[in-house]
Write a structure and sequence with these properties.
Elements lengths: L30 H6 L1 H12 L2 E3 L5 E4 L2 H9 L5 E2 L2 H4 L2 H4 L8 H11 L5 H4 L3 H20 L4 E2 H18 L5 H21 L12 H26 L7 H7 L11 H32 L1 H15 L13 H13 L6 E5 L3 E3 L2 E3 L4 E4 L1 H4 L19 H5 L19 H18 E5 L7 E3 L3 E3 L4 E6 L1
Parallel strand pairs: 2-8
Antiparallel strand pairs: 1-2, 3-5, 4-12, 5-8, 6-7, 9-12, 10-11
Helix pairs in contact: 8-9, 8-18, 9-13, 10-11, 11-13, 13-15, 13-18
């Protein structure tokens, strides 16, 4: 449906009941279940208790109905803040767009938004396709010897290469290797912290904390040095960093400080490669499991491109390929969980939500809501034909969040995934290796738990 659901004003009612839900264990409620298998728990409670659920005895709630989700995501930050989940990322990201709040967030969003307009992103298409072609060339010896590859790891490397080139205009120097090595240390530690119920203070000298601080310090050294060099130079290198350096607040005329630039650059490095890599990993996984869909994508790409490297101008002629990406995002959204906290008491669906509670929203679960998605576990890209999209509520599908805080890099990620898939599928057919399951592993983003091990078959 194209109509917008009106955003409800905050409720002053205090007599409404709390929603139903599982109580779990004494004191800890459902937290052990949530840590062990959050996807299973959240899916099960939606099916049993409905679209507004109280999770245990803690001040934690789960919301799955599209109109309620729109209400929350479109509410101003004066009604909802980002909540405690994202605060766990602040140690590495600082006060970038993902973690910041209030006036600071609004200012940074104003400064950064022009750099992410589709027209300005288009010139990064050549970087994306070129890096994908380089990866395909690197795969040739392994394909010739029948050597399996972990596509999940390969996509992580590819998307980090792309975001490094888009940010800094290069990725071949020693700086890029330092960033790559440091991220490989920092990301797993961040994920362990994300669902941990008892976190040691960040300054405590634990092995994880020491390794994390060293990794972030190494990235900081590189990023601050590049920022300083750019400030001394008058050359516009046409990359994202140049756009951020030139950005001026339309209200005050101010530019970003070095610390603000650092926080946004590191946010883009982390969020800009991990999420798209997971999307592509799940794409090749699902295409291997659905050969008829894979054949249709290959036929479309071959007819349009004829073997040449895709460009941004070709993407409009590859609609089925994009529908596949959208369906992968439905089933395996990288940003699978979103948290918000109401500043004052709210009401949703006739239930009371206390102030400062944690309200969880899950694209993974809502994207499988049987009321809006027939055969919700099935893989069917035709769901994203224009007529079928128009028949669904707006927030039955929201892989990039929504409202004022919608992911600023959504167009970058979609363009990148589209170009990479079109490039790779012309060069190889990728087949899953039997006996290597890829269960979803929900941490900060939705990974394939054991990687995605595949064999390459050159076209």
């Amino acid at each position: 449906m194209s109509t917008t659901v009106p955003v409800n004003p905050p409720s002053r009612a205090t007599t409404l009941p709390l929603p139903p839900g599982p109580r779990g264990y004494p004191l800890v409620g459902v937290l052990p279940y949530l840590r062990r298998d959050p996807l299973r728990l959240l899916t099960a409670v939606q099916r049993r208790y409905g679209d507004v659920v109280k999770l245990g005895d803690q001040r934690m709630f789960f919301v799955t109905r599209p109109e309620h989700i729109q209400n929350i995501l479109h509410a101003s930050e004066r009604r909802y803040n980002k909540g405690p989940l994202l605060s766990k990322l602040r140690a590495g990201l600082g006060d970038g767009l993902l973690t910041s709040e209030g006036d600071h967030w609004r200012r940074q969003r104003r400064l950064m938004q022009p750099a992410f307009h589709r027209q300005r992103l288009a010139h990064f298409g050549a970087i994306m396709s070129g890096a994908a072609e380089e990866l395909c060339a690197d795969w040739q010896p392994r394909a010739a010897h029948g050597e399996p590859i972990n596509v999940a790891a390969a996509m992580m490397g590819l998307t980090l290469t792309i975001v490094s080139r888009a940010l800094f205009s290069h990725d071949t120097s020693n700086d890029a290797e330092i960033i790559r090595r440091s991220l490989n240390i920092a990301l797993p530690i961040t994920e362990r912290r994300f669902w941990s119920f008892i976190n040691m203070p960040e300054r405590a000298p634990t092995p994880d904390n020491i390794r994390f601080r060293r990794a972030i310090a190494a990235i900081d050294d590189v990023v601050f040095r590049i920022i300083a060099a750019r400030r001394r130079s008058d050359v516009d290198q046409g990359d994202l960093l140049a756009m951020l350096l030139q950005a001026r607040d339309e209200e005050t005329g101010a530019q970003m400080s070095d610390q603000q630039l650092r926080d946004e650059v590191i946010t883009l490095l982390l969020a800009g490669h991990d999420t798209t890599a997971n999307l592509l990993s799940w794409t090749f996984y699902l295409l291997s499991r659905h050969p008829s869909v894979e054949s249709k994508v290959y036929a479309e790409v071959s007819a349009v491109l004829g073997g040449r490297t895709p460009a941004v101008a070709d993407l409009a002629s590859l609609p089925y390929t994009r529908m596949v990406i959208d369906e992968v995002l439905r089933l395996y959204p990288p940003a699978w969980i979103i948290g918000r906290s109401p500043i004052a008491e709210e009401q949703l669906g006739g239930y009371r939500i206390p102030a400062n509670a944690l309200v969880l929203i899950s694209p993974y679960v809502t994207h499988r809501h049987p009321e809006f998605w027939p055969n919700p576990e099935g893989f069917d890209p035709e769901r994203f034909s224009p007529e079928m999209q128009d028949a669904r509520p707006r927030y039955a599908y929201f892989p990039f969040g929504g409202g004022p805080r919608i992911c600023i890099g959504n167009n970058f990620a979609l363009m990148e995934a589209h170009l990479i898939l079109a490039t790779v599928i012309q060069r190889y057919r990728l087949d899953l290796i039997p006996g290597y399951p890829a269960p979803p592993r929900p941490m900060v983003t939705l990974h394939a738990g054991n990687g995605v091990w595949m064999l390459l078959h050159p076209r």
